[in-house]
Design goal:
Length: 433
């Protein structure tokens, strides 16, 4: 098992430093302690590419805690079995795979163009709420097509429930205590499910299942036949919020970079000029041609991974980077430091979208990139997220030149509590001449 010593720790007081500034402390840990370090007894941070990938791939040794934000609703009858849930999950993943997304670019692009067109020009705007709304419209439409308008208000409420649940509190209640936040979550989940149920029933009874992700889940599989209705319903609240929650965090960082790097924004605008005038006519071929825009999105995600710390539990004593990690410990996987490691990327703190392209402007051999995770729990929505964000970036740069508000105060705050986000981000758009 190699070395059996414990991972190094920062000098005393590191936990206080962590509470004050998590990003800076994560960097200090990586710089001063190396691959794996100890934040407090039983809490380890995997800080560089090798250990991060090992933890995420070795899911047997480092399982993901099973505490979904929207656990299955309790039912007196008809509760799906765990096998049915697994089949529903597999069907959902089929609807999100890259080929499925590529076939529906023409449905994603209009929402991105609408966002850019509706950005009020000539004033400082707090932009995350409209970004979130635009991405929710795109995401919910991707899942439910023409039924999206019915479900969108419920999706917003699910998002609110999520916000309340993840709000930091000094006391962590045991999972069975029905705190007000958990009761609110269950109410919103029930309301969403009640709105979705007649849609599922109507599609099934009419035989018009739909070409969207819900339709994918309603089609009988050759091996197992039809999925029970309750299994379909249970798997959808979480994925509905996922379509716009992390993407809107990412979009905040991307728009900030368009404002800070006008030359890069100009290059995006030049690429975007080649998109069809009618956004609904956009295809995956158009998307594939936005090579620089995709590289820019990827570079922003490298520097500011919206999920910058991924948690794993250790259920049996195991080895990590030559250290022994005890059962019962927690490992925090840190894409943020892994992706800013000079051994992985030259000038790692510099914003250089070109690093993802070769000399001919095609995608280059990638350095470490863990912003979508890796291994069995890697992001299911990566293809959809990249399509939405690339089109939003392209359409915004095509129409607008962005800038940060003038003045001594920064136009946003960085928060790292539930992901890395720009809070209160204000930007100003002027029409590109
Ligand atoms: C920029 C946008 C996004 C980023 C940066 C992102 C990032 C991630 C990361 C890092 C993970 C792995 C978590 C872990 O290992 O603990 C993950 C998992 C996941 N993501 Fe995303 N995500 C994004 C967008 C989306 C979208 C659009 C969807 C859905 C349509 C989605 C659905 C999921 C799901 C369902 C999982 C859980 C997979 C599992 O536990 O097996 N994500 N995402």
């Amino acid at each position: 098992m190699g070395r059996t010593n414990e991972p190094p720790r920062l000098p005393e007081g590191s936990f206080a430093a962590w509470s004050r500034d998590r990003l800076a402390t994560a960097r200090r840990g990586a710089d001063e302690c190396g691959d794996v370090w100890q934040l407090e007894p039983g809490v380890y941070v995997a800080a560089t590419a090798g250990p991060c990938e090992a933890v995420l791939r070795r899911a047997q040794d480092f399982p993901k805690a099973s505490s979904p934000l929207f656990p299955p609703l309790k039912r007196s009858t008809g509760a799906p079995t765990s096998e049915e849930r697994a089949r529903a999950h597999a069907a959902r993943m089929r609807g999100l795979r890259p080929q499925a997304v590529a076939a529906r670019i023409g449905e994603i692009a209009p929402g991105a163009a609408r966002f850019a067109d509706q950005w009020p020009t000539g004033q400082d705007v707090e932009i995350l709420p409209p970004v979130r709304h635009a991405l929710a419209e795109i995401g919910v439409r991707y899942l439910f097509s023409e039924d999206a308008p019915t479900l969108l208000p419920f999706a917003s409420q699910l998002f609110l429930a999520r916000e309340v649940l993840v709000r930091p509190s000094h006391w962590e209640w045991p999972p069975w205590i029905p705190t007000p936040a958990r009761r609110f979550r269950t109410r919103q989940q029930t309301a969403f499910t009640n709105a979705l149920r007649p849609i599922v029933q109507r599609r099934r009874s009419s035989g018009r299942l739909g070409d969207d992700m819900l339709g994918q889940m309603l089609r009988p599989s050759a091996r197992y036949g039809l999925l029970p209705e309750e299994a379909v319903l249970d798997t959808l609240p979480g994925i509905t919020v996922a379509t716009f929650e992390t993407p809107s965090r990412a979009a905040g960082w991307i728009l900030l970079h368009l404002a800070r790097y006008p030359q890069a924004a100009g290059r995006v605008a030049a690429e975007a000029a080649l998109l069809p005038a009618d956004p609904a006519a956009t295809t995956s071929t158009h998307l594939d041609r936005l090579q620089y825009t995709q590289a820019l999105v990827r570079e922003v995600l490298r520097l500011h991974p919206p999920s910058w710390l991924l948690t794993r539990r250790v259920t049996r004593p195991t080895e990590l980077a030559g250290y022994t990690v005890d059962a019962g410990s927690t490992v925090l996987v840190c894409p943020y430091t892994a992706q800013r490691d000079a051994r992985e990327h030259t000038d790692p703190d510099q914003f250089q979208p070109e690093r993802w392209l070769d000399d001919s402007g095609s995608p280059a051999k990638p350095g470490v990139f863990l912003s979508f995770g890796t291994g069995p729990h890697a992001c299911e929505g990566a293809a959809l997220a990249m399509a939405m964000l690339t089109l939003l970036t392209a359409q915004t740069a095509r129409r607008c030149h962005l800038s940060e508000p003038r003045g001594p105060e920064p136009g946003y705050q960085v928060t790292t509590l539930e992901g890395l986000a720009t809070v209160g981000l204000r930007l100003r758009a002027t029409l590109r001449g």
